[in-house]
């Protein structure tokens, strides 16, 4: 495999991959625990100008070693949790990752956590973590749109800025943050908007949490929603999460996929509705029937931005539905999975969609 430009610094005293500690800086520098999960940031392509590549190829040591001066920002410990393309992210890895983040943040020797992750499902994983992480310490997620050995790879810059955010005391209490392309986003608000461009991550309804350039940070709006440390969700005893399917609405939509989801065991359904969370009459009828039988139905939108409010063109009160508010279908699915670990009551679930 092609080697990355800077070499990782390994110390005998460090069981995992460590940076900074060897230079005797441990006393002054903050300590960041890096948990790597794969993605394009760890991806490899046959040559720097190739187009096709494989996600999750380099390990955490190679990624950290490719970032100049990271050891001047923090003492860094690296750990590999998974090494996958995030299109393969699943509930089991979410639970494992969340437990690991909670455990690492409980240690007095950790000031912040940085997670490397593929960009495809970064918005879901980050929102999941923001709902279940118990600590106020900074948790920052980074990815990259270009593989690690690509021309103008964006991973090292994102990693550097991610660590800078993870050691900024002002990042405390903001929940999980996503840092790419010099921009800091709240997990709840961020979405991937472009297949390949480096400015793909946007907080469309609200704007970003801040900006970071060469490690220099400006913060904008505070986070005003309930986060894991104040919330009711816990990964502590969970072996899995309830099945929630997302169904994409379109002209001529039938009830077939709704019925199939329910007969395959879905406990909740999120509809990526047309416009303001709308769908055809047959789909509405099937969903209303499902809601009567105890399946929790959330109306979201297939549009990139906007708010789905209760009782607009659909009478949610009458049908027993939940309106997603600002949450897109992917994030609605995450919240509904966690909500279903506490309740099946659509009124209680609606309250959660208003609070989180
Ligand atoms: N498919 C990749 C992933 O999500 C894309 C990326 O990381 O940019 O892992």
Largest sheet: 9 strands, mixed
Class by helix and strand content?
alpha/beta
Summed up, the helix count is 10
Q: In which order are the strands of the major sheet placed?
A: 1-3-2-4-5-6-7-10-11
- Shape from CA axes? globular
Q: Kindly state the percentage of residues in helix.
A: 25-40%
> How much of the polypeptide forms β-strand, as a percent range?
15-25%
Small ligands present: aspartic acid
Low-confidence stretches: 6-15
Descriptive report:
The chain is built from 10 helices and 15 strands. A hairpin with a 2-residue loop joins strand 10 and strand 11. Helix 4 (122-132) runs parallel beside helix 9 and helix 6 (256-263) packs parallel to helix 7. The chain is an alpha/beta fold and 356 residues long. It is globular, with a radius of gyration of 21 Å. Residues 6-15 have low confidence and may be disordered. The chain has a 9-stranded mixed β-sheet with strand order 1-3-2-4-5-6-7-10-11. Strands 12-13-14-15 form a 4-stranded parallel β-sheet, sandwiched between helices. The structure holds aspartic acid. Aspartic acid binds at residues 39-40, 55, 85-87, 118-120, 143, 145.
């Amino acid at each position: 495999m092609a080697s990355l430009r800077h070499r990782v610094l390994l110390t005998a005293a460090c069981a995992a991959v460590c940076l900074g500690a060897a230079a005797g800086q441990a006393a002054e520098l903050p300590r960041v625990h890096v948990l790597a999960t794969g993605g394009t940031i760890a991806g490899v392509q046959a040559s720097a100008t190739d187009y096709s590549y494989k996600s999750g190829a380099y390990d955490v040591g190679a990624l950290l070693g490719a970032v100049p001066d990271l050891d001047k920002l923090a003492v860094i410990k690296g750990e590999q949790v998974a090494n996958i393309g995030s299109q393969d992210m699943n509930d089991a890895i979410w639970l494992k990752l969340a437990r690991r983040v909670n455990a690492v943040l409980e240690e007095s020797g950790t000031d912040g956590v940085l997670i490397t992750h593929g960009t495809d499902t970064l918005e879901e994983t980050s929102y999941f973590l923001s709902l279940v992480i118990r600590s106020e310490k900074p948790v920052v997620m980074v990815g990259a749109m270009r593989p690690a050995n690509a021309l103008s790879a964006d991973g090292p810059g994102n990693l550097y800025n991610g660590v800078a955010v993870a050691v900024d005391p002002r990042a405390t209490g903001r929940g999980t943050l996503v840092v790419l392309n010099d921009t800091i986003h709240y997990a709840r608000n961020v979405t991937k908007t472009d297949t390949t461009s480096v400015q793909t991550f946007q907080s469309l309804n609200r704007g970003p949490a801040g900006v970071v350039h060469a490690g220099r940070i400006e913060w904008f709006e505070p986070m005003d929603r309930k986060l894991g440390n104040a919330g009711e969700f816990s990964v502590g005893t969970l072996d899995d999460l309830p099945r929630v399917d997302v169904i994409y609405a379109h002209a001529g939509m039938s009830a077939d996929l709704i019925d199939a989801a329910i007969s395959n065991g879905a406990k909740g359904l999120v509809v990526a509705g047309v416009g303001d969370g709308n769908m055809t009459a047959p789909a509405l009828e099937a969903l209303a029937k499902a809601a009567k039988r105890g399946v929790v139905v959330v109306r979201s939108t297939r549009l990139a931005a906007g708010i789905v409010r209760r009782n607009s063109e659909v009478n949610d009160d009458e049908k027993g539905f939940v309106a997603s508010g600002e949450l897109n279908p992917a994030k609605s699915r995450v919240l509904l999975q966690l909500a279903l670990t506490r309740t099946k009551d659509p009124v209680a679930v609606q309250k959660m969609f208003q609070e989180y």
